[in-house]
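Exercise 7. Given the encoded structure of a 87-residue chain, write a plausible sequence.
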């Protein structure tokens, strides 16, 4: 009788690599999007500050939300990396 390890079929040796690749992609792409959102909203705030200086503080909300996107990517990357098990 031959004993077959079914775990090796379900989890190939390259699975941790792709898990960590997904965590790195989640963090880097989320922070890239946060940087892009901050740049675009910062440009809008500076343009609006010329015409309507009283609304500049209200316009800071998109900058904060863009930072939240970056933090969300970090949290997702940590969650993914803690769930990864070796082959």
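Solution.
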């Amino acid at each position: 009788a031959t004993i077959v390890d079914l775990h090796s079929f379900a989890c190939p040796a390259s699975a941790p690599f792709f898990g960590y690749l997904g965590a790195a992609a989640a963090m880097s792409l989320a922070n890239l999007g946060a940087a892009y959102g901050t740049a675009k909203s910062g440009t809008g705030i500076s343009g609006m500050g010329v015409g309507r200086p009283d609304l500049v503080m209200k316009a800071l909300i998109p900058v904060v939300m863009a930072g939240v996107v970056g933090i969300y990517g970090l949290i997702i990357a940590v969650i993914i990396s803690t769930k990864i098990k070796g082959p």
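Remark. The chain has a mean pLDDT of 88. Students should compare their own answers with the one above.
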